[in-house]
Design goal:
With about 170 residues, this protein is of the alpha+beta class. The chain has three helices and eight strands, in the order αβββββββαβα. The strands form two sheets. The protein has a five-stranded antiparallel sheet with strand order 1-2-3-6-7. It has a three-stranded antiparallel sheet with strand order 4-5-8.
Length: about 170
């Protein structure tokens, strides 16, 4: 098991754009995917939440995200993911991040997206997502571009400590 520390808000590495993965079979890429999976597992065990994590969050500036949806819609690494289409519908919702687990941020996201990526075997795939999966993919791809949810806040009052959010808003996520 290779659980890595999750970089926290304020670490400058989170603001850097990640490089594309050139060699999917390299030890670096294989290890990064494994470490992302293990780190996501540990976060889920400790906090009881978490559906995705990006390589920059564990200090690896490569375009890899790992998604594990509870319902099995998507489970595994997405390598060099890119949003190739998004609809015009906008969703305003509360977002959080493993890089700031005690902070909730109200953001605006696209309601439906299509993401193209490579799987572990190097096969090109596409997933069309809406709702929570759409939001998650946008969040994780933002991490690859050095963009944090706090930069997408809809206004100065769009922040809440998790404990306060749970008291006031947890049913409106």
């Amino acid at each position: 098991m290779a659980v890595r520390d999750i970089l926290q808000l304020g670490n400058p590495l989170l603001r850097q754009e990640s490089a594309s993965v050139a060699d999917l079979k390299s030890e670096e890429t294989v290890a990064a995917s494994r470490d992302l999976s293990d780190t996501l597992d540990r976060f889920q065990q400790e906090y009881g939440r978490g559906r995705g994590i990006s390589a920059p969050q564990i200090g690896i500036p490569r375009r890899i995200i790992y998604v594990r949806m509870p319902d099995g819609r998507l489970d595994g690494p997405l390598i060099n993911p890119e949003i190739v289409w998004g609809n015009d519908q906008r969703l305003e919702l509360w977002d959080d991040s493993m890089s700031f687990p005690d902070l909730m941020v109200r953001v605006l996201r696209v309601g439906r997206v299509r993401v193209r990526y490579l799987d572990q075997r190097g096969e090109s795939r596409e997933v069309e997502a809406e709702g929570d999966l759409s939001e998650l993919l946008q969040h994780e791809i933002d991490h690859l571009d050095g963009i944090l949810a706090v930069q997408r806040a809809v206004g100065p009052d769009a922040f809440a400590a998790r404990a306060e959010w749970e008291r006031r808003f947890s049913n409106s996520r």
